[in-house]
Every structure is written in C-alpha cells, then in structure tokens.
Amino acid sequence: MLDLYGFLKSSNHYKKIQIHDLLFIEYKCLVNEVKAGIWSDANYFVFVTSGKKMWRSIYKDYVVEAGDSLFVKKGANLVHQFFDEDYCALMVFIPDDFIKQFIQRFSTIAGMNKLQQQDDTDAVIRIQLDAYLEAYIQSLAAFLSSPSYPDKNLLHLKFEELLLNIFTNPIHRTLAQYLLSINREQSAQLQQIMEQNFAYCLNLEQYADLCSMSLSSFKRNFQEIYHTSPGKWLANKRLDLAAHLLKTTDKPANLIGFESGFEEASSFNRSFKSKFNMTPIQYRERS
Known about the structure:
The protein has 287 residues and is an alpha+beta fold.
C-alpha cells in the first residue's frame, strides 16, 4: 500500500507548504490510479475542488465531488478514481502531536465537547461545510496558488482557527469527538486502529506506526488487550469479514479475499478452507 503522507511530503510534483509536520498540499491526480490502496500515519482533511473520487472504509464507500469535504482518520483505505474530469483537492495532514498540543492549549473550549466512552465513528467522516469552512478553503487555495509563500505563522494560526470552529460549531460534533479521542490512553487508540484497519494489507510495523508505538510495545499491548497475537487476530478478523461478504454480496470470491486483507487468492483460499473446512465458493453455495 502507498504511504500517502510520506509520498506527498517527499514529492516535488505538488504545490505544498509544510510547517513542521503539518502539511498543506494541492493534490492533482497525475496518474491513472483507477483503484489503489493507501495508508497514512497522519489524519487528514480532503477539500475537493474538482473531479470525483471514492474513499472506501471496511464497511462503507464515500464518493466525493467538487465542493465535498472529508476527514480521513490515520490508517488505510482503498480509493477509486473517476476520470470524467481531472481530480483536484486541497489536503491538510495533521499529526497526532499537533492535535494533542492544540487540545492542551485550548482545553476549556475543547472540553465543551464531552468525550464519549467509545469512538464509534467510521474511519472516514463526511464534513458538512459551513460559512467558515468555505472561507477557509478559499483562503487555502489562494495561499497555495500564490507565487510567493505566505507567512507560515499566519497559516498556522488560520488552521488553529479552523479547529476552533470545529470544536465550537455543533454540526462538527462528530469530528470534534474523534479529535478529543486522540488524547485517550494508548490501549484505547490501539483498539480503534485495529478495528478500523484489520482488512488492509499492512504489516505489523505499519500497525505499530499507526498506534505511535515501537513494534515490541505494540505486540505487548496487543497481547494484553486481545489475549492473542496480532497475526492470529488479524487472520480471524479477515476470514470472518470474508465469510460475511460471501453471504451478503455477489462480489467475486477473489475480490472478497482482496478486500478482506489477502493479497494472494491462493493464500485466501487456503486460509479460508483451514478455518471453515470448505472453499469460499462452497461456503457461498451452502449459505
């Protein structure tokens, strides 16, 4: 899977402004990537200015067109490109540390949103635009199209204003709740990351990165929470998802295997048969 955040930070093909690890970028589709797997260890906003694209979480598709906006949690997604029109979006990548520092600085305002016991939102959150967000998108587009770089302190302050708007406007409560959840203890974050990303072809080092842990700490914390190894847990979750999709959809078995986290059809068939004592096709026929 493509490390989207790392790729865009190092690429010279896009207009961008970086303030420490906060990345503002004008993304234009330069390749015919019809379908692709991407992951990012930073959360990000997507403000679509032209074209059409789809983000897919494990359970839902999010199609966006010009004027639409998304917030994508750190983790993995499948994306699908439509080529009726050139796709362009303004994107802002926000590391966890920036969000934590913001919440600490503006604790009184952020605290107006009571943190729920569990974040049950999907890996992608659709954003309803308000007057402030629309003005912010226009100003960001102007900054990125300017021949000279804007003052970075000004850009930093403008982004903090955007976050303040999210925490104070009730229509953004879902997103505010997620941002607050980033301050949870590591065990709660680990569970959230794993439950929303188990179906993607990430290795354990990438899962550890998403949880802001070393690999050894990730394995130790995972064992304490789930009482099994990451490898066994991932295999079972992926096979259970595949079984569900075989029952409830008419997608080809090989596609279901891929969408459940198996890169190779042979590996999917072998693992499925080992758990269910029948092939995916036989399972579908008997369901």
